[in-house]
Prior knowledge:
The protein is mainly β.
Amino acid sequence: MPVPVDPRGEWADDEKTTIRIFSENSPSVAFITTTKVQMGFFEPTATSQGTGSGFVWDQDGHIVTNFHVIADSDYATVTLADKSVWEAEVIGREPSKDLAVLRIDAPSDLLRPIMQGSSNDLQVGQKVFAIGNPFGLDYTLTTGVISALDRQISTEEGPPNRRTRRSIDGVVQTDAAINPGNSGGPLLDSAGRLIGVNTAIYSPSGAYAGVGFAIPSDTVRRIVPQLIQYGRLIRPGIGIVPFLDQTVRSLEPKGVLVRSIYPGSAAEQAGLRPTQARPTRRGFNTQFYIVYGDLIVQADGKRIESLDNWYSFLESKKPGDQVTLTIIRGLDTRSAEQLDVQVTLEEDNYR
């Protein structure tokens, strides 16, 4: 005799919300497969690099993902919700924010842009939902809450011989499970709006350990249009080459020490001074001593103790803004003095 099955009854309200969010937003999620091409002696060899997640930004075929998903690859494909596979072109990347934009030549009826939300009104404890491709398992939904706000995670950028550590500020921390393959996927609020891009996990093993991070959507909405238009983030700057933090860590006070200044730059026009080697005669020998350049210790009243502070300050501004830099001139000399210098920010084409 068959065992009777009890009727299910109504879904709970929170279950209805979760089901709705997944059904409405999963068509906006894309899956990214990357390939590295090795040039062999007779013919090139293609090696799979891995998989990641992304989401549809607009009906022009732009797909947003993490920079590290595509960083070491030569070729990428995007799989949409209907299982169609498209060759992708990388049109913009910003390593310091771990963001990249791909473009696929798919018809607009296959492209459902993600619904945009703001990250400036998030609250610790509110429910969040992540959709992604962990371990190659497509269309996986995980849920959790916002665990903390305004976190800071580190990235690296620049050539190998001058690698600079940068931070992504204002990062959203969540306990929603984020595993390898989730990277680049959307983090959604209970209204189904994009509030972040899943970007990293904090775990010795590289697998989920209860702490995940997402780039806040306000940062994403500021950067992605620039990546689409210019292929890069348009940063303001003043035209200096600073010393790396580890090179000047013994100096007091802490700040950003000017190493050199580009001719014609905003820094040169403002009268900032670079670090120089000066000759001195000792008997028949010529020796050199270091004259420190200007040390930037404040910008518009904000303390600048590291390159990270400096770049974070610049990213809050735009080319054309006038800022006040507080500098120490004559560092490590008896004539050292603190000065305020007005500088008009320019587009940073030097880095």
